[in-house]
Amino acid sequence: MKQNTTVNDNCAELRPGVAATTGFIPTCGDNGVAAKHDYIAEIPEKTGLDTIFLAPGDMVCVAARPIKAGETVTVEGHEPLTVLNDVPRGHKIALEDIPEGTNVVKYGFAIGRAKQDIKKGEWVHTHNIRTNLGANLEYTYEPTDDTVKPGRPTTTFMGYRRANGKVGIRNDLYIVPTVGCIDGLCDTMARAFRALHPDCGNFDSVIVARHPYGCSQLGGDLVWTQNTLRGIAEHPNAGGVLLVGLGCENNQMSLMKEGMHEYVPERTRFMICQEMEDEFETAADLLEELNDAAANDVREPIPMSELKVGVECGGSDGMSGITANPLVGRFAEWVVSQGGSVILSEVPEMFGAETVLMSQARDEGVFHDVVRLINKFKDHFRKYGEIISDNPSPGNKAGGITTLEDKSLGCIRKGGKCEVEDVLWYGERLRRNGMSLMETPGNDMVSTTAMASAGCQIVLFTTGRGTPFGCFVPTLKIATNTPLATKKHRWIDFNAGRLLDEPAAAVDEDFRKLVLETVNGARANNERNAMQGVTIFKDGPTE
């Protein structure tokens, strides 16, 4: 049954201080010209801060606004600083003279080393520092004692308890093709259902898990596709699932069913198109059966320990590790303290920050799993002759991220100080409450899909440059800066740029309220705009 929620579903009101505007400013890449590094720099910045100083021992601060050469700016805990170059928002400024070859420290850790002498007040970026990443390292288990461990729930959310005991936060209808060549057929089936049920019937959304794979795939790639699709087909956010096969593909329906141990028969239907006289007529009948089965579904109070959250970033900038990622990290700590689950993924964006995660490992066994996770993905890069440190994209660099260490130290802040309870390999499901690390590439579409397929009911996705991608589960977009939240109001659900001007406690409270309203039924922008995609990882030559 589709339920009316009492939560505020107006996206503008869910984002205090963000005004909707229209228009478009073209994106610029890293062309070495400081004035063109920020594609939203034309929007006025209201923050009263000049710079942001992150941690004791840091050799750089971060520009909180565009700074002109010759300006004298304030830096917390330091004397006024005269800036020698134009510095875009989110980029770094040297707080001291840094000799060539010296490690440059930000977040309290080295983000690379100077490749030339850097003067105090100078703009610090790709032109004068380089990465330290290279060969595999030897690691030692040195646990920290200030991690957030799984606790007991003290509050609840409103969710759907399924017959297999799992809990969903949506009552969606999923149509899952086993092979990419029938994506169009599945789209037509979904359109036909919506034509009969313009309000989606007893469901919140009708989602087709479109993908290009499953036809001639072999080996590990086929297993990855199967495990990802099984995770979608058995996801508790679905009140009904229709799995559709063609009939001649390597990803046979019988193989899919063999690995599905948690599906609810009353809510799952299977169909092979080549065996049907009229696949559209058959699909229509099966979808009506599922719609009828969902007629009496209602939300009920669920302990917060059953909330499963994926944390993700994409289109990151120099503010990601300062505003949005720490905001999400503090929420992750709260979820874990309530006994809930969090997944942190994108292994290449742990390179250079992996020792922090290793120190948060629950025990030495998990520590060794993290070591294997890091080294396995470095070997994956080398297998194809790729340079391990080449991850930061042109957009990342344009936004102020200089090296992969710089990016990674900001990325891992989405997990806060949560103890690492488990390591999941690509395609696996969540096993333990608390925070798990997951093997995925540095690709936000693949990683978001993988975390949702692993059982996350919602994904919290931070972005500094802006990206519209949303997964098949609610995907809340958190802007790192106010100009982005203002410009891309149809993409962004929450403005973490407020942290530059408002107390963190107030912003955290508003963010937690938004997330819980979304968990309880308020629609995220990706749901309002039908941006509910699926992207599957592959390694081999077969499709």
Automatic annotation (TrEMBL):
Keywords from the UniProt entry: Lyase
Pfam family, one: GD_AH_C
Molecular function as annotated in GO: lyase activity
Domain SAF: 58-130
Metal-binding as UniProt keyword: no
Record's keyword annotation contains Metal-binding: no
Family to which the UniProt record says this protein belongs: Belongs to the UxaA family.
Protein name from the UniProt record: Altronate dehydratase
Organism: Bifidobacterium avesanii
Classification of source organism: Bacteria, Bacillati, Actinomycetota, Actinomycetes, Bifidobacteriales
